[in-house]
Write the structure tokens for this entry.
Amino acid sequence: MAVKFEFSLSDRDFNKLRLLKKADGETDMTFNDYAEELLSGVIGRMYREYDRQGRIKEDEND
């Protein structure tokens, strides 16, 4: 299962994304795919950190 998100970035944040993509040497991905991969990685790292801190509480109503 996947959930689709649609949002806009400010010009400033898009420029940062462009520079990150360039610094990674990523030439085969679209900006959208790169942003998706980047966000997924950030979510994974934050989740692990919050879980270690005991801040993640699974809730059936979420």
